[in-house]
Amino acid sequence: MATTVVERVFTPTRGVLQEAGEMVILTGRTIVSALRPPYPYGAEFVSQFIFALRLCWLPLLISTVAFGYEAPGLQAANFLVLFGALDRLGGFFVLASIREFAPFVDAIVLAGVAGTAITADLGARRIREELDALEVLGVDPIKNLVVPRFLALMLVTGLFDIYALLFGIFGGVLATLVNHAPLGPFWATFFNNASTTDLWGSVLKTTLFGAIIAIVCCYKGMTARGGAEGVGRAVNQAVVIAFLAIFAFNYVFTQVLLATHPQLTTIIK
């Protein structure tokens, strides 16, 4: 009886740790394959890059404007109006949009749209035994399938962060105008608090988010089992794991960035 209880408790934990270890191994193999010649994945990289751009630009535009206008925009503006400090909304947007909300929305859209497509594609190839056929023919699936998706998602997520920042800030502008306040104080406090560290930190963070999404989604796709139902299950698991990994990594990245750049903790009026 005791043995059965222990197995029920530790078997899921062992499975999670095993998957995490295999994803780390896949990350190492992907980086080595990306750096080691030859480089036959150029066409696939361009195809995946354009594919992600085409799929994600409109959902990201809608999400960033709506999120920027609603959460740090209207909610923060309503709070600041109580204290007669609506002119501080620009400084708040540096903390909210540039450092956190825009990167998160960027990563969530990429994981939910491009990441699921990657998982479904690789999962279908696994179910149809195409990946096994490639290995029999001596073609490395990691170099030819995982690496281009890994590089494409890193690049497109980093670029889309700039896109998300612009439209997220536009949401703050809309919130300011809705409250019939001038834009001068908004931009003054925004640029007083914004720094190049905020910008490169945001872009670097989202680029690494793209790497996490690519590894998780490629791994779940390439290990899918059980026919069409197994592919659907792999897609669901990939999204959940990618979100959890992004949240955990963001905590570590933010702590390290604030510890190495303590000036970011100072808010300038």
What sort of overall outline do the alpha carbons produce when their principal axes are compared? elongated
Strand elements, count? 0
Q: Kindly, what is the distance between the CA atoms of the first and last residues, rounded to a whole number of angstroms?
A: 64 Å
> Kindly state the mean pLDDT as a whole number?
87
Strand/helix succession: HHHHHHHH
Q: Structurally, how many domains make up the residues? A: 1
Query: Radius of gyration in whole Å, from Cα?
Result: 22 Å
Percent in helix: over 70%
Q: What percentage of the residues does DSSP assign to strands (E)?
A: under 5%
**How would a crystallographer describe the biggest sheet?**
none
Number of helices: 8
Weakly predicted, low-confidence segments: none
Which structural class do you get from the secondary structure elements? mainly alpha
Overview features:
single chain, 269 residues, mainly alpha, 8 helices
Summarize the structure.
By secondary structure, the chain is mostly helical. 86% of the residues lie in helices and 0% in strands.
Explain this structure.
It is a single chain. With 269 residues, the chain is mainly α. Helices cover 86% and strands 0% of the residues. It has one domain (42-265). The chain has 8 helices and no strands. It starts with a helix and ends in a 9-residue tail after the last helix. The model has no long low-confidence stretch (mean pLDDT 87).
